[in-house]
Amino acid sequence: MEHDVFLADCPARTTLGVIGNTWTVVVVAALGESDMRYGELQTRIGGISKKMLTQTLRHLVDSGLVARSAEPPRHYSLTDLGRTLLEPVAALVRWAEENAERLLDPVPD
Q1: Which regions span the lipid bilayer (predicted)?
Q2: Do the domain assignments include residue 21?
């Protein structure tokens, strides 16, 4: 089935909304390094509030991108579907790191 993200009711557009927010990208990148417990994620991801981390993890679990272990100590890991995001997320993170200064302090034309 083909999708067209320019159509208002396109499922792919909804998917971009799921994966396109800052904290989603950062959490996926962190979990790409290793499975982590909640506290480890909070330590690894500077500046994220407990509320935002909880919301982001819940959203990623509900979307099928992250799995939460059933038994304590609970940890989070990328699912097979979540792992398919690692390459594009890594490319996006790399691009952001390389171009942050240019975007935040643009040179006038």
Answers
A1: none
A2: yes
- Name, in order, each residue with C-beta under 8 angstroms of 37's C-beta and a sequence gap of 6 or more: 73, 74, 75, 76
Is residue 4 one of the residues assigned to a domain?
Answer: no
Q: Tell me: the pLDDT tens digits for 52-80?
A: 999 999 999 999 999 999 988 899 999 99
Q: Is 67 helix (H, G, I), strand (E, B) or coil?
A: strand
Is 107 a domain residue?
Answer: no
CA angle 2, 92, 40 (to 5 degrees): 115
Closest CA to 21 of 92, 103, 102: 92
Picking from 57, 61, 69, the residue whose alpha carbon sits closest to that of residue 23 is 57
Whichever domain contains 79, its CATH number is 1.10.10.10
